[in-house]
Amino acid sequence: ESEPQRPNMSRRVFYSAVLLLLVAMMCGAAGSVQAQGHGTGDGYTSGGKSLVQLQRGYPFANTHVPGHIFRNPHLVNVSGTLVAIAGAQFNGPEESGSTSMNLMAQISNDGGVTWQTYTGPNGVPASSSPQISSLVPSETFNPFLAFVEGCGLMNGVKPHYADKRGRSGLESVIHFLHTGPGKEGNLSMNSVSMGIFLFHALQPSDIVGFLNDASTPITKMADNTLVFPVQFLTLGGSTASTIMYWDSDKQHWTLGKSATHAGCTNPSILEWEDKKLLMITSCNYGRRRVYESTDKGNTWTEALGTLSRVWSNSLAGFGHHIQSGFITATIDGRKVILLTQLEYPGRYGIAEIHLWLTDTNRIYHVGLLPTGDRATSSSLLYVNDTLYCLYNAGFGSNSGTFFLDLTSWLRSIWHALNTWAAKDDALSKQCSSGAADTALSGGKCSVPIPTAGLVSHLADNFRLGEWKDEYLGVNAVVRGAAKKAPNGLTFEGHDAGAEWPVAGKQWPTVPLHFANYGFTLAATVSIHEVPTGITPLMGLKRIGNKTLLGLSYDNNMGWIVMPGPYPNYETKWEPNQTYHVVLKKCMTVWAPCTLTGNICRLWACLALLMNYGTRLRTSTLARAMSS
């Protein structure tokens, strides 16, 4: 699937016009997902503390079944003790029927200042049954990490097996690392065998095996359901991701009934709202897609109106083995998402890790982590007002796992959260551009500007050709003569204006990617001089300067809506009057219409709300709204 062309939201005002209010809002666009049926080099340095040197290979002498190696790092808090897991190796059952296991981990009891090698846990015999084990999660069995045995694309897929009834299916082993009462010494491992039966003729979308040896944290939802993501291969040769969860009624692990789009792997999950799971994946065509499910994986919906396709993926550099941190954190009483993103700024194979913050509407780049330039997988842990990162770096026998204490980085996160809250409070006291009947008196209004879902705001923060986003997001680029006005800018001359890029310099991260599917952009403008012809005021264009939708004005005092043009002389503009213009796009169908409140319909709206009689203070906003 190819990436759609990304438009730019442009506003060009000529012949001395004052841009007073801009509002960009996301419509609640979401894409429906079709369910897939399925029964370092030498001299390398790092900013982190080295924990474990990971070797390229491991000995498999005298083993009856090839071993499974898990290399992704995981950092967990077990009863106040930090447990850093650099990797694990599992060998298949020998004649004794037991599974041998080697967990490469270290522990710290002082917040990562000093580390000790962890000497446990001990392997537990694996079940020989093709059924999912009946081992029940409880207070004494609290699994927090799952190691899912899989097969690589280069090695083919696992063969199907047939049980005594003649049913076909697949078999895999999942190893659960869990805790019991007490300190870290009670960590133990259970290896359970599971089978998925296929009661019908095989279809191309049927699962034939889990993809690669993948380790993943287990999430405990608000309703105490245990859930973790899995990636798999299908009979048709594609890959996809879904979840497994503990079904307390049936007392076994259950596979989600639907999955992501084909080609989406490396899944990570979290619970964002009550019973709502978010899953971020890396997809073949170059972006990381985010999906949401409120029914434990029975259906998945791509979150096009929020986070999906904002970040690029890492498949081009390292394949299906790379995982990133993706966690929730409650900071100063506000629930947010923190994630790490692997990016390639230059040469192939040279990667660096960036830390990002989001509340699912606004997105803030916290910074580039001091990991060097050969980082790969990473994980995050937020506990007791501290933030940590564990990551892998280097290649082959020179690879290693490193620990970072990111607690000092919380200052930047606090700054972003406090800025968002302060801007919300200030804007809520201003008047909505859609409240034509608002009583403006004493600086108060009956209908404040809504801030739920607000993404960006451009006011009078202008410096060195950039119009700064008050919400610390994407800045607009100013061209031509411009000077500050109260809470806005005045553009002078034919070539003066501003462009708010949806894509371009932000690649590989595109915080305004939602504009490809739905948004609302509003501006309060005042035109000071009559032009000599048709002059663009505000619009949306693709790369290549093709205008998709826009508004212009002419020397006959009329408004012209694009596409068209269709001059409107019934409602004429007047010099030095204040007008509130709203551009709304929902999904992909375009048409001019009148603004009908905050309802996001399946077309675009371009509306003129006539002069209120009072000039509003200028400000610039970006906002996400539900449909």
Tell me what the structure shows.
The protein has 627 residues and is mostly beta strands. Strands 1, 2, 31, 32, 33, 34, 35, 36, 37, 38, 39, 40, 41 and 42 form a 14-stranded mixed β-sheet that branches. A five-stranded antiparallel β-sheet has the order 3-23-22-21-20, with no helix packed on it. Strands 5, 6, 7, 8 and 9 form a five-stranded antiparallel β-sheet that branches. Strand 20 (264-273) and strand 21 form a beta hairpin. The radius of gyration is 28 Å and the shape is elongated. 48% of the residues are buried. Mean pLDDT is 73; it is low at 1-23, 27-47, 49-65, 122-135, 433-444 and 588-627.
CATH class of the largest domain: Mainly Beta
DSSP helix count? 2
Q: Structural class of the secondary elements?
A: mainly beta
Major beta sheet summary: 14 strands, mixed
How many domains is the backbone divided into? 2
Indicate the proportion of strand residues.
35-45%
C-alpha Rg (nearest Å): 28 Å
For the secondary structure, the number of strands is 42
How is the CATH topology of the largest domain named?
A: Neuraminidase
Helix amount, in percent? under 10%
Instruction: Tell me what the CATH architecture of the largest domain is.
Output: 6 Propeller
